[in-house]
Sequence to fold (482 residues):
Amino acid sequence: MLDMVLTTGVAHLTIGNLVMWLIAFFFIYLAITKNYEPLLLVPIGFGILMVNLPLTYLMEEGEGLLWRFYHYGLEWEIIPPLIFLGLGAMTDFGPMIANPKTLILGAGAQFGVYVAFFGALILGFKIPEACSIGIIGGADGPTTIYTTVHLAPHLLGATAVAAYSYMSLVPIIQPPIMRLLTTEKERKIKMRQLRPVSKREKILFPLVTVLVICLIVPASAPLMAMFMLGNLFKECGVVKRLSDAASNELMNIVTILLGVSVGATMSAERFLKWEVIFVFIMGLVAFAFSTAAGIVLAKFMNLFTKEKINPLIGSAGVSAVPMAARVSQVMGSKADPKNFLLMHAMGPNVAGVIGTVVAAGVFLALAG
Amino acid sequence: MIDWGFAVKILFFGLSAVFSSLALLIGAIYAFGKILKHIEEKSN
Amino acid sequence: MTEVTAPMAGKIMDVKVEVGDTVNEDDELLILEAMKMEMPIVATASGKVKEIKCKKGDAVGADDVLVVIE
Fold:
């Protein structure tokens, strides 16, 4: 009788498992009722639930189903680059090509990455761990996951969830910082309509970018190459089927595997630690500083340029596409309903993705 | 023990890589924009 | 006479005024949708709506004239 009871999972449940169930239910609840990143939080939440069922051995090295997803998908670095392929096929770099100056803002908004990097070091994290925590400030999920799997796999659940949850909280985190750092007059600055960008320019862009970025930071190549390949699919116009596959079916498939794998790393014994709370705090610090740095840099650029840019688009340099650009639009139209910043903010927004990939590449090259 | 010298090196390398690569990209965009414009004017 | 133009390419979700209406500056004229975001297009001047050059569901390009105010 006792033997029979011991073969059930119930007998092996720990308090930690139950706490993780609550976290899982909370994520699924947020996804369903609040619509917070549902495409990721639903599979992540379910993954957490699965890995906290005793005796299922789903994360058992070499045999568990979720372990295989995790090992071949994430450790083999296949899933995040495929997500970037899909993102590339969905990203319009037109606004950035029309106003290349905004690339600087995408670079400036990586500042928070380094603030959090040093913050994490001061809190006692090791250098590779601090790199993974810092990169949360880039606000890019797949890049965060890619970096963490390499440098600090034991923190994967925490950094991935922090990145995705702060991304969905962009409309709450950013506005107070934006209001604090800009004056009413600055928020009212109108920007000239962007020039149309020719098809040739859009086709050349991914080709030139992959050469420039990968020559400078070779370690960023897996993400950057797939990102630009996807974009070339989209812009060249002759492989619509590939572009559709990359941005729809393939993207959806790898999103499922990504979410479940990330959730599967969050077993009670790995996740319920004090350091996870520090990861979340530093992630928020990174986000806030990136937002602030983008705005301050935009104001700084206005000191030198004749055609003023509205500093509200600076905060869109954190990658979270397109949430951060939408926040710029909302803040701008609040100051003046005739102000349209959405397209202008898309420039720093997509530049931010490139900036974060470069920052991650340097981390991987030096700390990996 | 944390190697602060190494940490500062990462900061320095990181920031300069981010800014220099994006600055180069700006240059590249302006350059190919100019070249394309030139080609299009010629073909007209 | 003032022309209200589209600030970016998008789709007209709603037209809130009719020809002959009197509008004040900053009154909402149309709702434009771009990138899954609905944005009100407001009058750039006060006056009477002389012409509406788009209807609900139209796709418009950047700089297209949408409403003429007199």
Q: What stands out?
A: Residues 287 and 366 of chain A are 23 Å apart (CA to CA). Chain A has one domain: 78-367.
